[in-house]
UniProtKB/TrEMBL annotation:
The keyword Transmembrane applies. It holds the Pfam family PepSY_TM. InterPro entries: PepSY-ass_TM. Keywords: Membrane, Transmembrane, Transmembrane helix. The keyword Transmembrane applies. This is PepSY domain-containing protein. The chain crosses the membrane at residues 12-35, 151-175, 204-224, 349-370. It comes from Sphingobium algorifonticola.
Length: 392
């Protein structure tokens, strides 16, 4: 078997096996580029509040959220980024040292009015469904793990790795003649049937090549983060998360002396007045992990991380994800590129359109295979018929 035939065999079988998965990822990816806009339009009663003066203390909101679901502890708090936004709280089980989360614990998203602490409503995180409450999240979960959990996430990481390798194979197959390389980017006029599908498959795939290769690599970083980070460290050191070096407490601290509002004030003062976007609570480590936005951010998600100790308000860490080694910067670009947010609306629209174009590449690829298979079957049928006639 020649090298080209071996590459064709790989490309054919990878495409057939991965076609359904990649098609699902392409379609859902095109939609969740506009996740926030879709969810806000479907659920204004959860996502929006009337603008008025005053805000409720964050510790009162924490108490209200934990009282709403007995046995829970506030895990993560997303603060309003614009006037009229609600607060989004995530809860987890309140665990004793060494205990495991109960199987029946419900991981809720609880939406709160920031002005008076009133609970607006709740959703179960990751719950499948096509109604207005669950549609946007269901699309997001389909894209992240097919809504099937960690095993599917790992399989999607494997798909991203193989898809990355297939980009090399498809590039080699797309240029059979170096002197006629321009023809590979063209869709010929006046052709139909197999030739039309072949041109669409090859030309669109080549024009999309930089974007789809980026999506494959960044997808690998999001599904296999530890493996990806280890691979990046081969070329450049990375800093890791700000809580990696902290030692667990003897007993989780679910009643910190330092209030949430005080932690926010300390972080914002340290950041020169930048607003805190989100707070992650770590009772096992005795720290708040606060996220802030600043001019170094590549998208609309704050990636300046400030860690504040529960006991005395000491700032244990302050760094930006996009600052540091080349490995840190490379890793920081992965999600903003994958989502298109690195380039604002232009990038988001480009990713959405690329997902639709990739769907066409996948469909034409399967169609090419089906046409060839049908043609081979017809040739085999004619040959068998002639042989039978000769024998007769």
């Amino acid at each position: 078997m020649s090298i080209r035939n071996a590459l064709l065999l790989w490309h054919r079988w990878f495409g057939l096996i991965a076609a359904l998965w990649l098609l699902l990822l392409a379609i859902t990816g095109s939609l969740i580029v506009f996740y926030d806009e879709i969810d806000r339009s479907l659920n204004p009663d959860l996502r929006s509040v009337a603008i008025r003066a005053g805000t409720a203390p964050l510790d009162d909101i924490r108490a209200s959220v934990e009282a709403y679901q007995p046995g829970s502890a506030l895990d993560y708090l997303m603060l309003p980024q614009h006037p009229g936004d609600s607060i989004l709280a995530f809860v987890g089980p309140r665990l004793a040292p060494g205990a495991k989360a109960p199987d029946d614990f419900v991981y809720r998203q609880i939406y709160v009015d920031p002005h008076d602490g009133r609970i607006l409503g709740t959703r179960i995180f990751g719950e499948a469904g096509l109604d207005r409450r669950r549609l946007a999240q269901f699309l997001y979960q389909l894209h992240m793990d097919l809504s099937l959990g960690p095993v599917a996430t790992w399989l999607l990481g494997l798909l991203a790795l193989l898809w990355t390798l297939d980009h090399i194979v498809s590039a080699l197959l797309s240029f059979p003649s170096p002197r006629r390389w321009r023809e590979s980017f063209r869709i010929r006029r006046g052709v139909s049937g197999y030739k039309r599908h072949f041109d669409l498959h090859r030309a669109i795939g080549l024009w999309l090549f930089p974007i789809t290769l980026m999506l494959a690599i960044s997808g690998l970083s999001l599904t296999w983060p530890e493996t990806f980070d280890s691979a990046v460290r081969v070329f450049s050191p990375t800093s890791g998360f700000p809580t990696d070096d902290l030692k667990p407490l003897a007993r989780p601290d679910h009643a910190p002396a330092l209030s949430l509002d005080r932690a926010v004030a300390l972080a914002e003062r340290k950041a020169g007045g930048q607003n805190v976007q989100a707070i992650s609570l770590h009772p096992d480590l005795g720290v708040y992990w606060l996220r802030l936005f600043d001019s170094r951010d590549l998208d609309d998600s704050g990636r300046r991380w400030i860690v504040v100790r529960y006991g005395d308000g000491a700032i244990l860490s302050d760094r930006h994800m996009a600052q540091g080694s080349a490995g840190d910067v490379f890793s920081a670009w992965m999600f903003p590129l994958h989502s298109g947010k690195a380039f604002g609306w232009t990038g988001r629209i480009a990713i959405a359109l690329s997902g639709l174009a990739l769907s066409l590449v996948i469909i034409t690829g399967v169609t090419i295979w089906a046409r060839k298979r049908r043609a081979r079957a017809q040739v085999a049928g004619r040959t068998t018929g002639r042989w039978r006639m000769l024998r007769a």
